[in-house]
Design goal:
The chain is an alpha+beta fold. It folds into four domains: 77 residues; 73 residues, Orthogonal Bundle (Muramoyl-pentapeptide Carboxypeptidase, domain 1), CATH 1.10.101; 159 residues, Collagenase (Catalytic Domain) (3-Layer(aba) Sandwich); 199 residues, 4 Propeller (Hemopexin), CATH 2.110.10. It contains 13 helices and 26 strands. It has a five-stranded mixed sheet, covered by helices on one side. About 15% of the residues have low confidence.
């Protein structure tokens, strides 16, 4: 008979062995309990194996935990390494090659220098002798040539071969030079040394055809191109088959007997010669180009079409045949770089002014290419007198309710001129004194009976301060006038009948100086100390949304934006869209003289608030992204840890 008491005793010891992990002592004690029975060895083995199993399970658990710890360590290391690599890569990517100065470009220009030098020589920015003596060109000469090319193309004139400049140098364009030199000076772009036709009825013919083009299609495109010019001028064009036509059109490949060889598809599309004898007026097109013969679809984006528009190129080249050089006005037909035109294209104002200056307007129009724009009528805002508005002395203007004569950034501060006074504002528009200063007390060489100044600006080249007063120009070093000043406006190339300059400013978009008077403006060459030869132009041509006869304009150092002033209002100009910004005009006083607590809070600087909001929004988005990454990482570690310790 089996001793039941002994069995219970053995089972209890086995349970104690497994639950309390007593190991060998437990096993021996359990073994003693089996002495009274013959089969105690069986139970002994069972109990011993149970204890060993418990030990093995604990060992595996410790091993798994150790492996998890190792994996976690590797995971954290990989995260840190990834972050470090991302920072390094971002730092490298944020150091563009194009920011290197010209003297450091010798290595990177090995691939681009040949094309760049050819480009600068071919299109008039460097003399032709430069091509065979590139090693003799100094860094400064190369910088000047690149800067001139960038200015002409409306790029920022850095003098560096940055990505935008290199891309533009490879863009499809006309083969006629941008710059012509005559007696060491640039030639007026409207005509070349007086080169123009002495008649207004011109004949044209096609002599050499392209074998891949349908003649009927070609003739149709040429007729449309000539019509662009006849619609805007007194010119008429007669189609003929005579070889001695005024304008002879040909398609050629490569070198073809003139000084402008073609280069195959993709870069120079054509060229034409100014009016004159022999080949004067002739137009040549590259026969290797892929000319697009598809019919124009107004629903298509012409810039996405693979082929080159013959109509677009011909309209441009025929402008040369009529006597026009290239224009630096982006969007004008005579801009040297390729642009597609639709069938309803009309000649832009800049080109219209040029062609009418040479040949006059259509016979049914009165020629007035520089006619003044109608001046909008502006009235001051009536403001009730409240205690929050400072009481101003009658001895000087009320800054809260006035127009201004001139405004300028001088040493980064804002100088506002009205009558014989000026206010000195910090870049954030704060003021140390609400009372203005008399102009002649600061610039003591100015006349003591000075009533007003017309325009003021600080030159970038030498930090000298330039005043325009009536028909005179004054140049100051600090507060003392330079020797030889004042000088007449005609000394810088302005017309003798110009009564005054309304605005003088440096445009932040290209760093050039611009002068405004009435409805016209000039671009001023600081190096030559003269206005450029292809000016004046109408303000409405480039400065969309700006009224004529403006009072003043300047570039604010705080945001590098351009602001125009007229009457009691001002406009912010969007340099990218080439148009005034939304929510303008606004009143001058409440914004620029905010320290005086001027009323009319409805005009409180929405553009500054908008810019600040955009800036804060961008920073906030970055901060939230980083916080989310940290939160996700912490959540992952927490979840990972729970899984480890729950097993």
């Amino acid at each position: 008979m089996i001793n039941t008491v002994l069995i219970i005793r053995v089972m209890t010891k086995c349970k104690q062995c497994m639950e309390h992990k007593i190991n060998s002592q437990c096993i021996h004690t359990t073994s003693d309990a089996f002495n009274a029975i013959d089969w105690h060895n069986i139970w002994y083995n069972v109990c011993q194996n149970s204890c060993k199993y418990s030990d093995s399970q604990r060992h595996r658990q410790r091993h798994r935990q150790s492996q998890h710890n190792i994996k976690l360590t590797h995971f954290i290391k990989s995260i840190v390494q990834t972050v470090i690599l991302m920072v390094i890569i971002s730092f490298i990517n944020c150091k563009p090659l194009s920011d290197a100065p010209i003297s450091q470009l010798s290595m990177q220009l090995m691939d681009n220098t040949s094309h760049a030098m050819d480009f600068l020589v071919k299109f008039g920015y460097l003399p032709k002798s430069t091509k065979n003596s590139a090693n003799l060109i100094s860094d400064e000469q190369l910088k000047d040539a690149i800067r001139a090319m960038q200015s002409f193309a409306n790029l920022r004139p850095t003098g560096l071969l940055d990505n935008k400049t290199i891309e533009l140098m490879k863009r499809k364009r006309c083969g006629v030079p941008d710059v012509f030199i005559s007696n060491g000076r640039r030639v007026r772009r409207y005509s070349l040394q007086g080169s123009k036709w002495d008649k207004t009825n011109l004949s044209w013919s096609v002599r050499d055809w392209s074998p891949g083009l349908d003649p009927q299609f070609v003739m149709e495109q040429f007729r449309k191109a000539f019509k662009v010019w006849s619609d805007a001028s007194r010119l008429t064009f007669t189609e003929t088959r005579r070889a001695d036509a005024d304008i002879v059109i040909s398609f050629y490949k490569g070198s073809h007997g003139d000084v402008y060889p073609f280069d195959g598809p993709g870069f120079v599309l054509g060229h034409a010669f100014f009016p004159g004898d022999d080949i004067g007026g002739d137009a040549h097109f590259d026969a290797d180009e892929q000319w697009d013969q598809r019919q124009f679809n107004p629903n298509d984006n012409p810039n996405n079409r693979d082929g080159v528009s013959l109509f677009s190129v011909a309209a441009h080249e025929f402008g040369h045949s009529l006597g026009l050089a290239h224009s630096s006005v982006s969007g004008s037909l005579m801009f040297p770089y390729y642009q597609t035109l639709d069938n309803n294209f009309h000649l832009p104002h800049d080109d219209t002014s040029a062609i009418q200056e040479l040949y006059g307007p259509p016979t049914d129009q009165n020629w007035s290419p520089h006619s003044s724009l109608p001046t909008p009528k502006y009235t001051s805002t009536d403001r009730p007198n409240t205690p929050t508005i400072p009481k101003f002395s009658t001895e000087y203007p009320n800054a809260c309710d006035m127009s201004i004569d001139a405004i300028a950034t001088i040493r980064s501060d804002i100088f506002v001129f009205k009558d014989k006074f000026f206010w000195w504002l910090k870049p954030n528009r704060s003021m140390t004194s609400a009372k203005p200063i008399e102009i002649y007390r600061y610039w003591t060489d100015l006349p003591k009976d000075l009533k007003r100044v017309d325009a003021v600006y600080e030159r970038l080249t030498d930090s000298k301060i330039v005043f325009f007063i009536g028909k005179q120009i004054w140049v100051f070093s600090q507060t003392r006038v330079d020797h030889g000043y004042p000088q007449p406006l005609t000394s810088i190339g302005l017309p003798s009948d110009l009564e005054r300059v309304d605005v003088a400013m440096i445009w932040g978009h290209n760093g050039k100086t611009y002068l405004f008077s009435g409805s016209k403006y000039w671009r001023f060459d600081e190096q030559e100390n003269r206005v450029e030869l292809d000016y004046p132009r109408l303000i409405s041509t480039a400065w969309k949304g700006i009224p004529g006869n403006i009072d003043s304009a300047f570039q604010w150092s705080k945001d590098s934006q351009t602001y125009f002033f007229k009457g009691h209002q001002f406009w912010k100009f969007d340099n990218r869209k080439m148009h005034t910004s939304d929510s303008y005009p606004q009143n001058i006083g409440p914004f620029w003289f905010q320290s005086l607590l001027c009323r009319n809070m409805k005009t409180t600087s929405p553009q500054v608030i908008g810019n600040l909001s955009s800036h804060l929004s961008a920073n906030l988005n970055i901060t939230l992204f980083l916080l989310n990454c940290i939160l996700f990482y912490n959540f992952y570690i927490f979840y990972y840890s729970i899984n480890i310790f729950s097993k």
